[in-house]
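User: I'm putting together notes for a lab meeting next week and I want to include a structural view of one of the chains we've been expressing. I don't have a solved structure, so I'd like a prediction I can at least talk through. The sequence is below, exactly as it appears in our construct file.
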Amino acid sequence: MTAYLKRQTMRIIAFIMLLIIYLINSGQLTTATEYAKKNPAIATKYIGIMLMTMAVILALFAWLYRRQLQRGNPHHFKKRPFTIKSILQLFAFFIGMLAVQVLWSQLIVHHILPMPTNQSEVDSQALQLPFWNNFYSIVAAPVFEEFIFRGFFFNFFFAKNNRRNIVLGILISGFIFGFLHTFSFSVTTLFYSGLGWILASCYLYFKDIRYDMALHFMNNLWSIL
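Assistant: Thanks for the context. Below is the predicted structure for the 225-residue chain, given as C-alpha coordinates.
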Protein backbone atom coordinates (compact mmCIF):
# COMPACT_ATOMS: atom_id res chain seq x y z
CA MET A 1 0.00 0.00 0.00
CA THR A 2 2.81 2.41 0.88
CA ALA A 3 4.56 1.76 -2.44
CA TYR A 4 1.27 2.29 -4.32
CA LEU A 5 0.57 5.63 -2.58
CA LYS A 6 4.12 6.79 -3.23
CA ARG A 7 3.85 5.84 -6.91
CA GLN A 8 0.52 7.60 -7.33
CA THR A 9 1.78 10.70 -5.53
CA MET A 10 4.75 10.89 -7.88
CA ARG A 11 2.42 10.52 -10.86
CA ILE A 12 0.17 13.32 -9.61
CA ILE A 13 3.21 15.57 -9.13
CA ALA A 14 4.49 14.72 -12.62
CA PHE A 15 1.07 15.42 -14.15
CA ILE A 16 0.86 18.79 -12.38
CA MET A 17 4.37 19.69 -13.53
CA LEU A 18 3.48 18.91 -17.15
CA LEU A 19 0.39 21.08 -16.80
CA ILE A 20 2.44 23.92 -15.31
CA ILE A 21 4.89 23.74 -18.23
CA TYR A 22 1.99 24.19 -20.63
CA LEU A 23 0.51 27.06 -18.61
CA ILE A 24 3.88 28.83 -18.56
CA ASN A 25 4.01 28.66 -22.34
CA SER A 26 0.44 29.96 -22.76
CA GLY A 27 1.25 32.63 -20.16
CA GLN A 28 4.03 33.92 -22.42
CA LEU A 29 1.41 34.57 -25.08
CA THR A 30 -0.79 36.31 -22.50
CA THR A 31 2.12 38.60 -21.60
CA ALA A 32 2.80 39.34 -25.26
CA THR A 33 -0.88 40.21 -25.72
CA GLU A 34 -0.77 42.63 -22.80
CA TYR A 35 2.12 44.50 -24.43
CA ALA A 36 0.72 44.33 -27.98
CA LYS A 37 -0.60 47.89 -27.98
CA LYS A 38 1.59 49.72 -25.48
CA ASN A 39 4.97 48.22 -26.43
CA PRO A 40 5.04 46.11 -29.63
CA ALA A 41 8.78 45.46 -29.31
CA ILE A 42 8.34 43.70 -25.97
CA ALA A 43 5.34 41.83 -27.36
CA THR A 44 7.47 40.57 -30.27
CA LYS A 45 10.16 39.45 -27.83
CA TYR A 46 7.67 37.41 -25.81
CA ILE A 47 6.26 35.86 -28.97
CA GLY A 48 9.76 34.71 -29.90
CA ILE A 49 10.25 33.24 -26.43
CA MET A 50 6.87 31.54 -26.67
CA LEU A 51 7.71 29.92 -30.02
CA MET A 52 11.08 28.63 -28.81
CA THR A 53 9.53 27.31 -25.61
CA MET A 54 6.73 25.72 -27.61
CA ALA A 55 9.19 23.79 -29.77
CA VAL A 56 11.04 22.48 -26.70
CA ILE A 57 7.81 21.47 -24.94
CA LEU A 58 6.48 19.73 -28.05
CA ALA A 59 9.68 17.68 -28.35
CA LEU A 60 9.58 16.87 -24.62
CA PHE A 61 5.92 15.83 -24.63
CA ALA A 62 6.30 13.68 -27.75
CA TRP A 63 9.39 11.94 -26.31
CA LEU A 64 7.80 11.36 -22.91
CA TYR A 65 4.58 10.05 -24.45
CA ARG A 66 6.44 7.54 -26.65
CA ARG A 67 8.59 6.50 -23.69
CA GLN A 68 5.52 5.84 -21.55
CA LEU A 69 3.93 3.67 -24.24
CA GLN A 70 7.15 1.71 -24.70
CA ARG A 71 7.22 0.92 -20.98
CA GLY A 72 3.60 -0.21 -20.83
CA ASN A 73 0.68 0.06 -23.23
CA PRO A 74 -2.32 -2.09 -22.15
CA HIS A 75 -4.71 0.02 -24.26
CA HIS A 76 -2.58 -0.62 -27.38
CA PHE A 77 -2.26 3.06 -28.29
CA LYS A 78 -0.33 3.53 -31.52
CA LYS A 79 -0.38 5.28 -34.87
CA ARG A 80 -3.20 3.97 -37.03
CA PRO A 81 -3.76 4.79 -40.70
CA PHE A 82 -6.33 7.40 -41.65
CA THR A 83 -8.97 5.81 -43.85
CA ILE A 84 -12.23 7.07 -45.31
CA LYS A 85 -14.09 5.07 -42.64
CA SER A 86 -12.01 6.45 -39.75
CA ILE A 87 -12.29 10.01 -41.06
CA LEU A 88 -16.08 9.68 -41.26
CA GLN A 89 -16.09 8.30 -37.71
CA LEU A 90 -13.94 11.23 -36.58
CA PHE A 91 -16.40 13.59 -38.23
CA ALA A 92 -19.20 11.94 -36.23
CA PHE A 93 -17.34 12.82 -33.02
CA PHE A 94 -17.01 16.37 -34.33
CA ILE A 95 -20.76 16.54 -34.93
CA GLY A 96 -21.21 15.46 -31.32
CA MET A 97 -19.03 18.33 -30.12
CA LEU A 98 -20.95 20.75 -32.33
CA ALA A 99 -24.24 19.49 -30.91
CA VAL A 100 -23.06 20.21 -27.36
CA GLN A 101 -21.98 23.73 -28.34
CA VAL A 102 -25.16 24.51 -30.29
CA LEU A 103 -27.30 23.34 -27.38
CA TRP A 104 -25.26 25.38 -24.96
CA SER A 105 -25.44 28.52 -27.12
CA GLN A 106 -29.21 28.18 -27.39
CA LEU A 107 -29.50 27.93 -23.61
CA ILE A 108 -27.43 31.12 -23.35
CA VAL A 109 -29.42 32.95 -26.04
CA HIS A 110 -32.66 32.14 -24.22
CA HIS A 111 -31.14 33.30 -20.92
CA ILE A 112 -31.44 29.88 -19.34
CA LEU A 113 -27.70 29.75 -18.73
CA PRO A 114 -25.18 32.61 -18.34
CA MET A 115 -22.45 33.46 -20.83
CA PRO A 116 -19.18 31.78 -19.78
CA THR A 117 -17.15 34.41 -17.92
CA ASN A 118 -13.88 33.33 -19.52
CA GLN A 119 -15.27 33.61 -23.05
CA SER A 120 -15.37 37.42 -23.01
CA GLU A 121 -11.78 37.43 -21.72
CA VAL A 122 -10.67 35.10 -24.51
CA ASP A 123 -12.42 37.24 -27.15
CA SER A 124 -10.89 40.44 -25.77
CA GLN A 125 -7.43 38.90 -25.71
CA ALA A 126 -7.75 37.65 -29.29
CA LEU A 127 -8.53 41.19 -30.49
CA GLN A 128 -5.25 42.50 -29.08
CA LEU A 129 -3.06 40.00 -30.91
CA PRO A 130 -5.40 38.12 -33.25
CA PHE A 131 -2.97 36.10 -35.37
CA TRP A 132 -0.91 34.61 -32.55
CA ASN A 133 -3.86 34.03 -30.22
CA ASN A 134 -5.78 32.25 -32.97
CA PHE A 135 -2.66 30.29 -33.95
CA TYR A 136 -2.15 29.14 -30.39
CA SER A 137 -5.81 28.25 -29.91
CA ILE A 138 -6.09 26.27 -33.16
CA VAL A 139 -2.66 24.66 -33.46
CA ALA A 140 -0.73 24.60 -30.18
CA ALA A 141 -3.48 24.18 -27.56
CA PRO A 142 -5.02 21.04 -29.13
CA VAL A 143 -1.63 19.31 -29.25
CA PHE A 144 -0.55 20.20 -25.71
CA GLU A 145 -3.96 19.62 -24.13
CA GLU A 146 -4.42 16.23 -25.77
CA PHE A 147 -0.99 15.11 -24.60
CA ILE A 148 -1.81 16.25 -21.05
CA PHE A 149 -5.51 15.52 -20.53
CA ARG A 150 -5.73 12.35 -22.58
CA GLY A 151 -2.27 10.92 -23.30
CA PHE A 152 -0.40 11.48 -20.04
CA PHE A 153 -3.56 11.31 -17.93
CA PHE A 154 -4.48 7.79 -19.04
CA ASN A 155 -0.86 6.61 -18.97
CA PHE A 156 -0.44 7.85 -15.40
CA PHE A 157 -3.76 6.97 -13.78
CA PHE A 158 -5.93 4.69 -15.94
CA ALA A 159 -3.52 2.50 -17.85
CA LYS A 160 -5.40 -0.74 -17.15
CA ASN A 161 -7.59 -1.75 -20.06
CA ASN A 162 -10.90 -2.67 -18.40
CA ARG A 163 -14.40 -1.19 -18.44
CA ARG A 164 -14.15 0.35 -14.96
CA ASN A 165 -10.91 2.16 -15.78
CA ILE A 166 -12.22 3.33 -19.13
CA VAL A 167 -15.44 4.81 -17.72
CA LEU A 168 -13.76 6.41 -14.71
CA GLY A 169 -10.93 7.69 -16.88
CA ILE A 170 -13.32 9.38 -19.30
CA LEU A 171 -15.38 10.96 -16.51
CA ILE A 172 -12.46 12.23 -14.44
CA SER A 173 -10.45 13.38 -17.44
CA GLY A 174 -13.45 15.39 -18.64
CA PHE A 175 -14.05 16.94 -15.22
CA ILE A 176 -10.41 18.02 -14.89
CA PHE A 177 -10.49 19.40 -18.44
CA GLY A 178 -13.66 21.34 -17.63
CA PHE A 179 -12.42 22.68 -14.30
CA LEU A 180 -9.11 23.90 -15.74
CA HIS A 181 -11.01 25.86 -18.41
CA THR A 182 -13.07 27.70 -15.80
CA PHE A 183 -11.12 27.33 -12.52
CA SER A 184 -14.45 27.01 -10.76
CA PHE A 185 -17.34 24.60 -10.30
CA SER A 186 -20.34 25.88 -12.28
CA VAL A 187 -22.67 24.94 -15.09
CA THR A 188 -20.02 26.25 -17.47
CA THR A 189 -17.64 23.66 -16.06
CA LEU A 190 -20.11 20.98 -17.17
CA PHE A 191 -20.08 22.39 -20.70
CA TYR A 192 -16.30 22.09 -21.00
CA SER A 193 -16.43 18.73 -19.23
CA GLY A 194 -18.87 17.52 -21.90
CA LEU A 195 -16.38 18.43 -24.60
CA GLY A 196 -13.67 16.70 -22.58
CA TRP A 197 -15.76 13.53 -22.33
CA ILE A 198 -16.16 13.44 -26.11
CA LEU A 199 -12.42 13.97 -26.61
CA ALA A 200 -11.56 11.22 -24.12
CA SER A 201 -14.03 8.86 -25.79
CA CYS A 202 -12.46 9.65 -29.15
CA TYR A 203 -9.00 8.88 -27.79
CA LEU A 204 -10.03 5.52 -26.40
CA TYR A 205 -12.04 4.65 -29.50
CA PHE A 206 -9.32 5.28 -32.09
CA LYS A 207 -6.40 4.58 -29.69
CA ASP A 208 -4.36 7.12 -31.64
CA ILE A 209 -3.77 10.53 -30.09
CA ARG A 210 -3.47 12.14 -33.52
CA TYR A 211 -7.20 11.61 -34.06
CA ASP A 212 -7.89 13.41 -30.80
CA MET A 213 -5.63 16.30 -31.76
CA ALA A 214 -7.39 16.55 -35.12
CA LEU A 215 -10.81 16.59 -33.43
CA HIS A 216 -9.67 19.25 -30.96
CA PHE A 217 -8.19 21.25 -33.85
CA MET A 218 -11.47 21.14 -35.79
CA ASN A 219 -13.46 22.16 -32.75
CA ASN A 220 -11.24 25.16 -31.95
CA LEU A 221 -11.15 26.22 -35.59
CA TRP A 222 -14.94 26.08 -35.77
CA SER A 223 -15.22 28.14 -32.58
CA ILE A 224 -13.08 30.90 -34.05
CA LEU A 225 -14.83 30.89 -37.44
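A couple of points you could mention at the meeting. The chain has eight helices and no strands. Helices lie at 2-35, 40-71, 84-109, 117-128, 130-157, 163-182, 187-206, 209-224.

User: Perfect, that's what I needed.
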